[in-house]
Amino acid sequence: MLKLFLWLRYLHKKKIAFLSITAVALSVSLLIAVASLFTSYIHAFKKAAADTMGDVVLTAPIKFAKYPLFIERLEQTSAVKAATAILSAEGLLHLGKGKVRAVQIWGIEPARRAKVTDYKQFLLKQKDSPGEPTFEVRNSRIGGFTGIAVITEPNEKTDEYDFHTIDQMFGQQAVLTTGTVIEDRGQKNLTYDFKRRTISFVIADVVFTGVYDIDKRFIYLPIEELQRRIFPNENEPVADQIQIKLVSGTDTEAALAQIRGAWEVFAAEQLQWAPHLIRYTDIQTSEQMQSKYIAALLQQMGVLLVIFGVVSFSVIVLIFCIFYMIVITRQRDIAIIKSCGAASSSVIFIFVGFGAFVGLVGSGIGAVLGYIFTKNINAMEQWIRILFGLKLWKSSVYMFSRIPNEINWPWASWIVLFAVAAAAIGALIPAIVAARTRPVEILRYE
Question: What pTM did the predictor assign?
Answer without folding.
Answer: 0.76
